[in-house]
UniProtKB/TrEMBL annotation, chain A:
<feature type="transmembrane region" description="Helical">
    <location>
        <begin position="213"/>
        <end position="236"/>
    </location>
</feature>
<dbReference type="InterPro" id="IPR037294">
    <property type="entry name" value="ABC_BtuC-like"/>
</dbReference>
<feature type="transmembrane region" description="Helical">
    <location>
        <begin position="98"/>
        <end position="116"/>
    </location>
</feature>
<feature type="transmembrane region" description="Helical">
    <location>
        <begin position="281"/>
        <end position="301"/>
    </location>
</feature>
<feature type="transmembrane region" description="Helical">
    <location>
        <begin position="256"/>
        <end position="274"/>
    </location>
</feature>
<keyword id="KW-1003">Cell membrane</keyword>
<protein>
    <submittedName>
        <fullName>Iron chelate uptake ABC transporter family permease subunit</fullName>
    </submittedName>
</protein>
<feature type="transmembrane region" description="Helical">
    <location>
        <begin position="42"/>
        <end position="62"/>
    </location>
</feature>
<keyword id="KW-0813">Transport</keyword>
<feature type="transmembrane region" description="Helical">
    <location>
        <begin position="173"/>
        <end position="192"/>
    </location>
</feature>
<keyword id="KW-0812">Transmembrane</keyword>
<feature type="transmembrane region" description="Helical">
    <location>
        <begin position="74"/>
        <end position="92"/>
    </location>
</feature>
<feature type="transmembrane region" description="Helical">
    <location>
        <begin position="125"/>
        <end position="147"/>
    </location>
</feature>
<keyword id="KW-0472">Membrane</keyword>
<keyword id="KW-1133">Transmembrane helix</keyword>
<dbReference type="Pfam" id="PF01032">
    <property type="entry name" value="FecCD"/>
</dbReference>
<comment type="similarity">
    <text>Belongs to the binding-protein-dependent transport system permease family. FecCD subfamily.</text>
</comment>
Length: 310, 306
C-alpha cells in the first residue's frame, strides 16, 4: 500500500463528495458547501474513523479478530439507554443523552464480556455468533419498549446509518472522535499488550483492569457518538482493521492512523456510492456498506488466514 | 401435542365471540390457518435443515433463507414491475417464486454445506453473515424501486398475521401438505443422513442426493411461511429445540411432525395471548425473537461445557 496513493484516493473522494448533491452549485455554491456538504463529508469521515478505531480496541480486548462493536450488542444497548431517556426525561440536553447512551453501551458491552468469558477461545468463530444473537436479544427488547411506548419511528431514525440529515450544527459532536483517537494513540502500546491476554499482560506489568476499562469506555463513547449523530453502521470496525492488518502486519501504533483513515475512506466511499447509484435519490450509506462489509467478512472467513486468527 | 393444538385453536376461534358470528369466524379461521401453516412449515423445515447441516444451532431463518426469498420477491418486482406482477394470478406467482427460491437455495446452500461440513462454527458464521448480506442486498434493491412498487414488495414480505387472502392460503396449504408428506417419506433416509456423510455413505445412502432433496423441501416450506407472513428468525429454533427435548429421539418420523405441531402451538398460543389478553397485534414476532435468541445462547453455552 503506497501511502501517497491512499491519500490521493481520499482527497479524490472528498472532492467528489463535495461536488455531489441534488442542488446545483451555481447559486450560493459556497454557502451550500459550507452548510451541508462539508459537514456531511466530515461526518462520514469522522464516523468511519471512530468506528474503525472502536473495532480495533474491541478486537484487542476480547482477543478475537472477528468481533466488532456491532457484533457485541453495543449499539442495541445504547439504543435502549436512549429510549429510557426519551421516556423518563425527554427534555434532556444532547450532552446528557450522549452520556446515557455511552453508559448503556458500556453496560451492554460488559454483558457481552461476561458471555465471552464462557465461550472457549479455541474457536474464534463462535464469539461473533454469540455476539450477534446477544445483540438481537437486546434489539428485540428495544423494539418491544419502543413499540409499547409508540416510539417506533424514533427507533427507526438510528436503525440505518446515513448522512442525508447532516447539516451544520447537527454533527459537531463527532469531532469528539478526533479527541478520542488522540487518546487511543497515547495508550496504543497498552492496548496492544491487552491483546496478549490477561496473564501475559499482567506479567508485563500492565494494570490490566484499568487499561481494559479505559478501552471499553472509549469504545462505548465512540459507539454512542456515531449512533446518536448518524445511526448504526455495521462491519466498519471489522473490515478496516482486518484488511489493514493483512496488508501491513500488526504494529498497532503504526497502524492506528492508517486504520482510522481507511475506515473513514470506506464510509465516505459508501456514502458517495449511495448518492450515485440512484442519483438524485439516495441509498443509506449503511445499506451500501452492509453489502460490501458482509462480502469482505465472508472472504475473511474463507480466505487462507494471513496469520493465525484469534 | 395435537390435542393441545386443537384446544388452543378452539380457544382462538371462540374466545369472546360476539355476532356477526359467520364473519368473525371466517376472519379468525383464516388467521388461524395461516398461523398453523407458518408454525408447522417453520418447525418442520428447521428439523430438516438441522439434520442436513449436522448442527443443532442452525435454522433456515438464521442462514438467510427468508432473506433469499425477500430478495427474489424484490428482484421479481424490479424486473417485471408491480403492475406486471399484479396481473399474474396468485397461485402461479407463488409457484414461480418458490421454484426460483428452490433453485437459488440449492446453489447457495448446497455449496455451503459441502464446503464447510467439517468446520461447523465456520459454517454457522458463514450462514449468519450470508443472511446479513442477502438482507442488505434486498434492502438496496428495494431502495431503488418506485414507492408504488415498493409497497407491492412490502405487501409480500412484512411479518403480519392480519392479512392473508383465501386464494393464497389454499395454495400455500396444499403446497405445505405436499412438502410435509414428502418430508415424512424421506424420514428413514434422513435418520441415516443425520449420522454424517461418511457413515451414511458407508451404509449405502446416496447422501448428496438426500441433502439436495431436503434443501428443496426446506426451500419450499420457507417460501410458504415467508410468503404468508414474512420472516420470523428464531421460531424454528424454538420449535425444533423443544421437540428434541420432549421426544428424545432421533427418528425423523417423530421429530418432523412434533416440531411442526410445536411451531404451530407456539404461534397460535402467542397470538391468542397477545391479541385477546394484551390487546396487541404485531408484537408476537418480537417476543418470539427474544426467547428464541435466549434459547440459542443457552444452546451455545451448554454445547461449550459438554
Amino acid at each position: 500500500m503506497r501511502p501517497f496513493l491512499c491519500i490521493a484516493a481520499l482527497v479524490a473522494l472528498v472532492v467528489l463528495s463535495l461536488a455531489l448533491g441534488a442542488a446545483s452549485l451555481s447559486q450560493d455554491g459556497g454557502w451550500l458547501i459550507w452548510v451541508s456538504r462539508l459537514p456531511r463529508t466530515a461526518a462520514a469521515l469522522l464516523a468511519g474513523a471512530g468506528l474503525a478505531l472502536a473495532g480495533v480496541v474491541v478486537q484487542q480486548v476480547v482477543q478475537n479478530r472477528l468481533v466488532e462493536p456491532s457484533l457485541t450488542g453495543t449499539p442495541e444497548a445504547a439504543m435502549l439507554g436512549l429510549l429510557a431517556v426519551t421516556l423518563i426525561a425527554p427534555g434532556m440536553a444532547v450532552a446528557g443523552k450522549m452520556l446515557v447512551a455511552a453508559g448503556s453501551a458500556l453496560a451492554g458491552m460488559l454483558g457481552f464480556l461476561a458471555l465471552a468469558d464462557r465461550v472457549p477461545r479455541q474457536d474464534p468463530m463462535l464469539l461473533p455468533i454469540v455476539g450477534l444473537v446477544y445483540g438481537g436479544i437486546l434489539g428485540a427488547t428495544a423494539t418491544w419498549f419502543a413499540w409499547s411506548a409508540d416510539l417506533m419511528q424514533y427507533l427507526g431514525t438510528w436503525r440505518l446509518g446515513e448522512f442525508s440529515g447532516v447539516v451544520q450544527g447537527r454533527y459537531e459532536w463527532l469531532w469528539a472522535v478526533a479527541a478520542l483517537a488522540a487518546l487511543l494513540y497515547v495508550v496504543a502500546d497498552r492496548i496492544t499488550i491487552l491483546g496478549l491476554g490477561e496473564t501475559q499482560a499482567r506479567s508485563l506489568g500492565l494494570n490490566y483492569g484499568r487499561t481494559r476499562a479505559l478501552g471499553l469506555i472509549v469504545v462505548s463513547m465512540l459507539t454512542a457518538l456515531v449512533l446518536v449523530t448518524v445511526g448504526v453502521f455495521p462491519f466498519v470496525g471489522l473490515v478496516a482493521p482486518n484488511l489493514i492488518s493483512r496488508w501491513r502486519g500488526d504494529n498497532l501504533r503504526a497502524n492506528l492512523g492508517v486504520t482510522a483513515l481507511f475506515g473513514a475512506s470506506l464510509v465516505l466511499a459508501a456514502d458517495v456510492l449511495g448518492r450515485l447509484i440512484r442519483y438524485p435519490y439516495e441509498i443509506p450509506a449503511a445499506t451500501v456498506f452492509a453489502v460490501f462489509g458482509a462480502g469482505v467478512f465472508l472472504w475473511l472467513l474463507h480466505a487462507r488466514p494471513g496469520r493465525a486468527h484469534g | 401435542m395435537a390435542g393441545v393444538l386443537a384446544v388452543l385453536s378452539a380457544l382462538f376461534l371462540l374466545w369472546g365471540l360476539r355476532g356477526p358470528y359467520g364473519f368473525i369466524l371466517e376472519l379468525r379461521g383464516g388467521k388461524l390457518a395461516a398461523l398453523i401453516c407458518v408454525g408447522a412449515a417453520t418447525g418442520a423445515a428447521t428439523v430438516l435443515f438441522q439434520t442436513v447441516a449436522m448442527n443443532r444451532l442452525l435454522t433456515p431463518g438464521i442462514v438467510g433463507f427468508d432473506a433469499l426469498f425477500v430478495l427474489m420477491q424484490t428482484l421479481l418486482v424490479a424486473a417485471l414491475g408491480g403492475v406486471g406482477l399484479a396481473q399474474v394470478p396468485d397461485a402461479l406467482r407463488f409457484v414461480v417464486e418458490t421454484g426460483v427460491l428452490m433453485a437459488a437455495a440449492m446453489a447457495l446452500f448446497g455449496v455451503l454445506l459441502r464446503r464447510d461440513a467439517a468446520d461447523v462454527t465456520r459454517m454457522i458464521l458463514t450462514g449468519v453473515i450470508l443472511g446479513v448480506l442477502l438482507r442488505g442486498l434486498s434492502e438496496m434493491v428495494q431502495r431503488m424501486l418506485d414507492p408504488a412498487e415498493f409497497s407491492v414488495v412490502q405487501q409480500a414480505v412484512v411479518a403480519s398475521f392480519n392479512r392473508v387472502d383465501g386464494g393464497q392460503m389454499a395454495v400455500a396449504g396444499a403446497f405445505l401438505a405436499l412438502a410435509m408428506g414428502l418430508a415424512l417419506r424421506m424420514a428413514p433416509a434422513l435418520d441415516v443422513a443425520g449420522l454424517g456423510r461418511a457413515t451414511a455413505r458407508g451404509l449405502g445412502l446416496n447422501h448428496d442426493r438426500v441433502v439436495m432433496r431436503a434443501l428443496l423441501l426446506i426451500a419450499a416450506m420457507v417460501s410458504v411461511s415467508t410468503a404468508l407472513v414474512g420472516p420470523i428468525t428464531f421460531l424454528g429454533l424454538l420449535a425444533a429445540s423443544v421437540a428434541r427435548q420432549i421426544c428424545d429421539t432421533h427418528r425423523h418420523a417423530v421429530l418432523i411432525p412434533a416440531s411442526a405441531l410445536i411451531g404451530a402451538v407456539i404461534l397460535v398460543a402467542g397470538q391468542a395471548v397477545f391479541e385477546r389478553l394484551l390487546g396487541m397485534q404485531s408484537a408476537l414476532a418480537v417476543v418470539v425473537e427474544f426467547f428464541g435468541g435466549l434459547v440459542f445462547l443457552a444452546l451455545v453455552l451448554r454445547k461449550v461445557r459438554t
